[in-house]
Amino acid sequence: MGSLPFRTVDSGAWFGVDREVTDALLNILFEDADLLVVNKPADLVCHPSKTGPLSSLIGRLRLYLGEGAAPHLINRLDRETSGVVVVAKNLDAAREMRRTWEKREVRKVYWAVVHGWPEKAEGVIVAPIGDDELSVVVIKGRVCENGAPCETAYRELRRWTRFEKPFALLEVLPSTGRKHQIRIHLSHIGHPIVGDKLYGGDERLYLDFVHNRLNDAQRQILMLANQALHAREVQLIFRGMEWRFKAEPETEFASFCAPPVESLLPHS
Questions:
Q1: Would you please indicate which residues are annotated as catalytic (active-site) residues?
Q2: Does the predicted model carry a pTM greater than 0.85?
Q3: Average pLDDT over all residues of the chain
Q4: Taken in order 214, 161, 192, 27, is the CA torsion positive or negative?
């Protein structure tokens, strides 16, 4: 990305719609005739759900765009991950966008709150990822020798203590897009994401969550209702212009990152 016209979108850029009408469905960052970019909330699946259109992002998009609409999700986020999702409103735009993704002309930036303080303020995790055949959770992955190549860069933004425990906010840039890549890689280096039920060290938390039987003690271990992973920014080239879409994290995420000043510590 270089000398092309550039536009940053970090607040609602509207396409002639009433924000009050759409707030209940979507947090729209940008919309024009071809694209719709939203800040997906945590605890919302991307794919269709059996519990009604409001229970999935694609269902809400169809409600918002109206009868006959066929929105295309260009990128997807895990249920508990919040942040930027790019949507094409028609097939031509979807094809163009997907070519951009396939050519890796997209820069994705995430924020993650992790347990512990990384030994190095920044680094690159290079470790292949495959299925975790030892886990009873079918969707779980792990670092393994015969896995697909994966690379994740990180940079520490701040560190603090809460409940006498160390935490850090990381800026994370995955150069590949494997399933659960950021969560697996950060857990692999000993810094799992706060609230991660699957890669936090005890997958029984995930199983109990799925079966709606989490108890208060387990919720205290997790600390947050949803994993502290947020798709902060997507930067890409589309039709001769560089775009940067930015989304603010939700209140629960932001509040956890805002401890008392006296608990903040510089990286040594």
A1: 78
A2: yes
A3: 89
A4: positive
